[in-house]
UniProtKB/TrEMBL annotation, chain A:
Belongs to the PIGG/PIGN/PIGO family. PIGO subfamily. This is GPI ethanolamine phosphate transferase 3, catalytic subunit. GO terms for biological process: GPI anchor biosynthetic process. It comes from Phyllostomus discolor. The chain crosses the membrane at residues 6-30, 448-472, 478-501, 539-561, 573-590, 619-637, 669-689, 704-723, 735-761, 832-851, 858-880, 945-964, 1017-1037, 1049-1070. Residues 969-989 are annotated as: Disordered. The keyword Ion transport does not apply. Keywords: Endoplasmic reticulum, Glycoprotein, GPI-anchor biosynthesis, Membrane, Transferase, Transmembrane, Transmembrane helix. The keyword Transmembrane helix applies. Pathway: Glycolipid biosynthesis; glycosylphosphatidylinositol-anchor biosynthesis. InterPro entries: Alkaline_phosphatase_core_sf (IPR017850), Phosphodiest/P_Trfase (IPR002591), PIG-O_N (IPR037675), PIGO/GPI13 (IPR039524). It comes from the Eukaryota.
UniProtKB/TrEMBL annotation, chain B:
It comes from the Eukaryota. The keyword Phosphoprotein does not apply. The lineage of its organism: Eukaryota, Metazoa, Chordata, Craniata, Vertebrata. GO terms for cellular component: endoplasmic reticulum membrane. GO terms for biological process: GPI anchor biosynthetic process. InterPro entries: GPI_biosynthesis_protein_Pig-F (IPR009580). It is a multi-pass membrane protein. Pathway: Glycolipid biosynthesis; glycosylphosphatidylinositol-anchor biosynthesis. It is found in: Endoplasmic reticulum membrane. This is Phosphatidylinositol-glycan biosynthesis class F protein isoform X1. The chain crosses the membrane at residues 23-43, 55-76, 97-119, 125-145, 166-184, 196-222. Keywords: Endoplasmic reticulum, GPI-anchor biosynthesis, Membrane, Transmembrane, Transmembrane helix.
Length: 1090, 232
């Protein structure tokens, strides 16, 4: 089997996963572009005179204010039926008494006594019904989606135009009290603020009591123009007890008293708004789009009469965001730029008509202003983003221009007919509702079909990985034809899809197209592959073995469905990794591989000799490896950043850059430690290469390791010194320091790149000259009658050459009485693959390290150390089957993937957006990047997914390491002479170990092993992304979906993509080395012919 | 002619059955001691409850289980095959104590490596190590003596030589598994008192131990036909 087809196959499998991820994402993560434009008082939203612009009105903007002050009482999760008046006079129907019904007596009383002063509405919130999104909607008038692609990703602060900003910019004093979410959303916007912590859902009273302490004194003081009180008790009560609990009755009664108290203190120029931001389900949760979640109460009251008509029998249903333009115009503010709500016309009617139709005219002018603003927004938005439907947009534009023309015409004509006015109002309303419907369609609706399709694709991809990884070892497995035909089917799928779309004249969506291609090829592949698998073997054979590893993988899968476990994933991964390591040790012991059989057998009992293989490793050695590994993992765990959901946890202080430290001495010590870690890292790599004799070679990559690595260490250390002490530099040197902090990181990155290129150019680091000096052809070619002509001959000859070279070396060493270790003789060919891998990983690690804070370098050192220990530990449990097939066991792959995600956390990352290390974008670019976005994105991405990248590139090491350890094992056995084991070792063991040349000897098995390794790694990553996708779709109504599950899905998807690309890079490197070894051996043979 | 081996087989069979019975009774006593440790202290101590005065309960439970194990060991004497020289009884006892302490420290280190806090809650972590040692090391010490080689033998494939060792294997492994499973509720946001470190783990260890005590006689009884021990 060709190695290139292995790579192609893995690319195809990854493509299936990518298509699944893209399809799921397009259905789940609704995106919207945030515009930063602002409405301003001076600039009307469109042409035409502003209505009712009276001279000398101080605070009139687009419209004269009707109220100068507003009290906004926001009761979190105040569902509509909580506030609904209870009509007890329905005959024949017993009044149901539920804890949440009819507790807000004051609303009912006001509605009965002052029907023209107050109105209750049923407001419909748009999903996602989570508090933060609702607050955003209630202030901006837009439809917030999960990802509001804006300029500022690092904080939650609202960048769009909003009511609070408008209030502040017109000089109103905004006083806030309550939920501290507002602090993040509107930093510095309030003239006075009392924030209370909102994270503890079990705490019903802290926020409410805190507000009550300040509410009435603040109201009485009069030092405010807008007063916002955000009560959380009802919401928390819902989460803790559910709405059907007596506690809810108490909480609602308390809210009733609050409203009563506020109403008593209102003055004539003040509007009271009582609103619930969303509802709650029967169990008290919210976040989704069920009827109970989206229905919220909205109550308006003013001490002066507000409405012409008495309230209707059944409260009117209004979209929640309609409050935004209404409030803006009532308070004489410009409507926020991005608002798509519609003014509630009822509130703009005069209570008594002074002129004929003046009331209707006022309504029409408010609506027209509103429509002008929405039209302006649509125009700006559709110019900046393309996600709105073009035809619908066009239709709406026409509608607006017609309505606007009608309105202007009406204003010009002296006699205004009521009927004409009504027509204009209806047209304007039609336009506004059309816009809203269009926006909802593209911004606020999950596409369940796409989500299901994406999840199904992911699941199918995982299944495929399992199937092929088990099947690949069987002799009747041929990849090429299967792959080619599948690709053809994929193309056929695309063609069918394009044809279908073309006939139905729908827009061509690349996501759907990709998914169709994936489906087409996958279905064909499974159809072909399944019968040949299923007829012979049971389904259970597919599952990862042994059982405990399967169990661990299941636990990891299940953990993604609990928000607590996702939040605590750093600890959970650590726990699982430790368990896996202990399990490996226990398993080794259980199978008698850990200790020599002498210890285990009780001679007195006459134990027979153990059935298992002879233990290759000293028990204490393996035990030491395990303990060292646990220690490394624990030490790496010290560098953790806390998720914000766990307030009791303290983030490690070591994650901050050294520049932020104050103590000079501690700073110097830390700096020393960091540089020490760098030196240790490069020294360890050199030592390792030296151990296997690679450093002797004059090849360019080796020279680079000898001289380039120290240079990189030097550059990094110098950069850190400058970065951490830049403020202390004397002013004369400031320019130099600034220049150096630009040049140094780039120089290190350039060095690393050149090193990698060198490695790709000459990957074989073999000391060929030494062998060429003493040709002894007769030992090499003895088994053959003629010169090697075919590939098969060649395959046989090279190991012999290799052995010969070793003999040569040993002979020379003995002659010169050299005391060097015997491994030196195990020439560089024995680890030709892993030497290239390790060199590449080191070269990759340095630039990545530079992107992190200084002290993370210790974690990188630990990363290399723990991978090294893990590889050794795993190698102890893997027997080498000489002719093949070679396999990498599941536990190795799972441990590797677990370690990648553990290192993600210990490098100070968390799967939420605010914790991304944004400073990485400025390493080497202290002045920023100007307008380019891909370079900072690349830098930040490299910082975030550094561990995934390194582990994925290093994945083939899992296959190579047991062969490397072979040499150590045999030497260990040889060292103590007269050992019992020595006697049993046959004469064939006297030969030097072939190590990785065993792989080269069996190219078919080598390819299969690489394929299997790649598929297993993709499977382990694939079930993680599958679990995230399933969790996000099943729990899309969950409280934490936008805070925990959705970010986790995004991070997991990104890490999957990075890991798969890393895997391709690693495999390509292996193939490059493989090709180079082949050509090198061919040259060698040719040289001997001459 | 053929009666001889048959008789021996039935003899072994009945021996095994009586052994299983003895095993069951001793295990029932051990379970009883744990139950006692929950109820007896409340007669002497005010405000005693397993969750609120957890550390006290840990100590008491540890003492009870150790005592019962020792008494049972002296009464039942399961390991008759091991030769014991009476002159070394004192050193043997001291050695056992040292082994016990060492296993406590070892468990403590493992917990810390697993992610337990290093400095805070040291006493809690250590007492957890003590109770786990009580469930695992003490039976080992009673049955096998301070002999690490024998321990390693029992906990490897085909290493057990009697039903006592077999039950020891089962109870010890189930204690570990219980402890391991006990760690799972810790991150959940249920805010129950038993989710605090290390209560869920100690409870898990206890449940695991009790489950092992119940399961092992049943399992041995179930598989009594398959089990053949190389006794001589």
């Amino acid at each position: 089997m060709q190695k290139i087809s292995v790579l192609l196959f893995l690319v195809w499998v990854s493509f299936l996963f990518y298509a699944g991820i893209a399809l799921f994402t397009s259905g789940f993560l609704l995106t919207r572009l945030e515009l930063t434009n602002h409405s301003s008082c001076q600039e009307p939203p469109g042409p035409g005179p502003l209505p009712w612009k009276r001279q000398g009105e101080p605070r009139a903007c687009w419209m004269a204010p009707r109220f100068s002050r507003v009290v906004l009482v926001l009761i979190d999760a105040l569902r509509f039926d909580f506030a609904q008046p209870q009509r007890s006079h329905i005959p024949g129907k017993p009044s149901v008494s539920l804890p949440f019904l009819g507790k807000l007596h004051s609303l009912q009383r006001i509605l009965e006594i002052q029907p023209h002063h107050a109105r209750l509405y049923q407001s419909k919130a748009d999903p996602p019904t989570t508090t933060m999104q609702r607050l955003k909607a209630l202030t901006t008038g837009s439809l917030p989606t999960f990802i509001d692609a804006g300029s500022n990703f690092a904080s939650y602060a609202i960048v769009e135009d909003n009511l609070i900003k408008q209030l502040a910019s017109t000089g109103r004093r905004v006083v806030f009290m309550g939920d501290d979410t507002w602090k993040d959303l509107f930093p510095g916007a309030f003239s006075q603020a009392f924030f209370f912590p909102s994270f503890n859902v079990k705490d019903l009273h802290t926020v409410d009591n805190g507000i009550l302490e300040h509410l009435y004194p603040t109201m009485d003081s009069g030092e405010w123009d807008a007063l916002i009180a955000h009560f959380l008790g009802v919401d928390h009560c819902g989460h803790k007890h559910g709405p059907h609990h007596p506690e809810m009755a108490k909480k609602l009664s308390q809210m009733d008293q609050v409203i009563q108290g506020v109403v008593e203190r209102l003055e004539n120029d003040t509007l009271l708004v009582v609103i619930g931001d969303h509802g709650m389900t029967k169990s008290g949760d919210h976040g989704g789009d069920s009827e109970l979640e989206i229905s919220a109460a909205l109550f308006l009251y003013s001490p002066t009469a507000l409405f012409r008509r008495a309230p209707p029998e059944e409260p009117e249903v209004v979209p929640q965001i309609n409050l935004v333009p209404t409030l803006a115009l009532l308070l004489g503010l410009p409507i926020p730029f991005g608002n798509i709500g519609e003014v509630m016309t009822e509130l703009f009617s005069e209570v008594e008509d002074l002129q004929p139709h003046s009331s209707t005219l006022a309504q029409a002018s408010a609506l027209h202003l509103n429509a002008q603003q929405v039209s302006r927004f649509l125009h700006t938005y559709s110019a900046a983003a393309q996600d709105l439907q073009v035809e619908e947009l066009h239709r709406l534009r026409n509608l607006f221009s017609k309505a606007s023309a009608d309105y202007q015409q009406l204003l010009q004509s002296p006699q205004r007919a009521e009927a004409a006015l009504q027509t204009v109002i209806a047209e304007l309303q039609q336009f506004l509702r059309g816009v809203r419907a269009m926006c909802i369609d593209s911004w606020a609706r999950f596409s369940l079909v796409r989500m299901a399709g994406g999840a199904a694709l992911l699941a199918a991809g995982c299944f495929l990985c399992l199937l092929i990884s088990q099947w690949a070892t069987s002799p009747d497995f041929y990849l090429c034809p299967l792959l080619l035909v599948s690709m053809a089917w994929g193309l056929a799928g695309v063609a069918v899809c394009v044809g279908l779309l073309a006939t139905t004249e729908l827009k061509l969506d690349p996501v759907v197209l990709g998914a169709m291609a994936a489906m087409g090829s996958l279905l064909h592949f499974l159809w072909k592959a399944w019968p040949s698998w299923g007829s012979k073997r049971p389904l259970a054979a597919l599952l990862p073995t042994p059982g405990p590893v399967l169990f661990l993988l299941l636990i990891r899968f299940a953990a993604f469905f609990s928000d607590s476990f996702v939040v605590a994933e750093a600890r959970a991964t650590h726990f699982l990794l430790c368990s896996l390591i202990l399990l490996l040790l226990a398993q080794l012991h259980w199978e008698g591989k850990l200790l020599p059989p002498k210890l285990l057998t009780v001679p007195r009992l006459g134990f027979s000799s153990p059935a298992g293989p002879i233990p290759q490793h000293n028990g204490m050695h393996v035990l030491g490896l395990g303990v060292g590994l646990l220690l490394c993992i624990r030490l790496a765990g010290l560098f953790h950043r806390c998720p914000e959901e766990t307030p009791a946890c303290h983030s490690s202080p070591w994650l901050s850059p050294l520049a932020s430290m104050v103590g000079g001495r501690a700073k110097n010590l830390w700096y020393g430690a960091c540089v020490g870690a760098l030196v240790a890292l490069s020294a360890a790599v050199r030592l390792w290469l030296h151990h296997y004799g690679n450093l002797k070679s004059p090849e360019p990559p080796v020279l680079f390791v000898r001289w380039g690595l120290p240079l990189m260490v030097l550059g990094t250390a110098a950069y850190w010194a400058l970065a951490s002490g830049a403020d202390e530099a004397p002013p004369r040197l400031q320019a130099l320091v600034a220049g150096a902090s630009v040049v140094l990181p780039r120089a290190v990155a350039a060095l690393a790149t050149s090193g990698l290129l060198l490695l790709l150019w000459r990957p074989v680091t073999v000391l060929a000259k030494a062998t060429m000096g003493a040709p002894r052809t007769r030992t090499i070619l003895t088994p053959f009658s003629g010169p090697p002509t075919s590939q098969a001959d060649l395959d046989y000859v090279v190991p012999q050459i290799y052995r010969h070279m070793q003999e040569e070396f040993r002979g020379r060493l003995e002659r010169t009485k050299c005391q060097g270790p015997l491994t030196l003789a195990a020439c560089q060919l024995g680890n030709v693959y892993s030497a290239a891998m390790v060199t590449a990983l080191t070269l990759l690690a340095f630039p990545l390290l530079l992107l992190h804070a200084e002290r993370i370098s210790l974690v990188f050192l630990l990363l290399f150390l723990q991978s090294f220990l893990l590889l050794h530990l795993l190698a102890a449990g893997i027997p080498i089957s000489t002719p093949g097939p070679f396999t990498v066991p599941w536990q190795a792959v799972s441990a590797w993937a677990l370690m990648a995600s553990q290192t993600f956390y210990s490098t100070g990352h968390q799967p939420v957006f605010p914790t991304i290390h944004w400073h990485a974008a400025f390493v080497g670019f202290p002045e920023g990047h100007g307008s380019s976005t891909w370079l900072p994105a690349l830098l930040v991405g490299a910082n975030t997914f550094a561990s995934h990248l390194l582990y994925a590139v290093g994945c083939p090491l899992l296959l190579f390491w047991p062969f490397l350890c072979e040499s150590q094992g045999s030497q260990k056995r040889r060292q103590p002479p007269g050992n019992e084991a020595e006697a049993r070792v046959g004469p064939e063991e006297e030969e030097e170990p072939l190590m990785e040349m065993r792989l080269w000897n069996a190219p078919h098995h080598f390819s299969v092993a690489l394929l299997q390794l790649g598929l297993k790694y993709l499977f382990v990553l694939g079930i993680q992304i599958l679990a995230c996708a399933l969790a996000a779709s099943i729990l899309r109504r969950h409280l934490m979906v936008w805070k925990v599950f959705a970010p986790k899905f995004i991070f997991e998807a990104m890490s999957f993509i990075v890991s798969s690309v890393g895997l391709f890079l690693g495999l390509s490197l292996v193939m490059r080395v493989d090709g180079a070894v082949s050509s090198w051996s061919r040259q060698l043979v040719l040289a001997q012919h001459r | 002619m053929s009666a001889g081996p048959f008789q021996i087989a039935t003899q072994e069979y009945t021996m095994k059955n009586t052994d299983i019975k003895r095993l069951l009774y001793t295990h029932l006593l051990c379970i009883f001691s744990i139950i006692l440790s929950i109820f007896i202290p409340s007669f002497f101590l005010d405000n005693f409850s397993v969750l609120e005065t957890h550390l006290t309960w840990l100590c008491i439970c540890s003492v009870f289980v150790t005592a019962v194990n020792l008494v049972l060991y002296l009464v039942v004497k399961p390991n008759t095959s091991t030769k014991r020289s009476s002159s070394h009884k004192v050193t043997r006892f001291l050695k056992c104590c040292i082994y016990f302490l060492m296993s406590c420290f070892l468990f403590h280190v493992i917990f810390v490596l697993y992610g337990a806090p290093l400095i805070e809650l040291v006493l809690e972590t250590f007492l957890f190590a003590v109770i786990l040692s009580t469930f695992t090391t003490v039976p080992c010490l009673c049955l096998l003596g301070p002999n690490v080689k024998a321990w390693l033998r029992v906990f490897s494939r085909n290493g057990v030589t009697s039903i006592w060792e077999n039950s020891l294997q089962i109870t010890t492994i189930s204690s570990f598994v219980g402890t391991w499973l006990g760690a799972f509720p810790i991150p959940l946001d249920w805010e129950r008192p038993w989710q605090v470190w290390p209560i869920s783990c100690t409870l898990g260890a206890t449940f695991g131990y009790v489950a092992g005590l119940v399961i092992s006689p049943l399992w041995i009884y179930w598989n009594r036909k398959q089990l053949t021990y190389k006794t001589n």
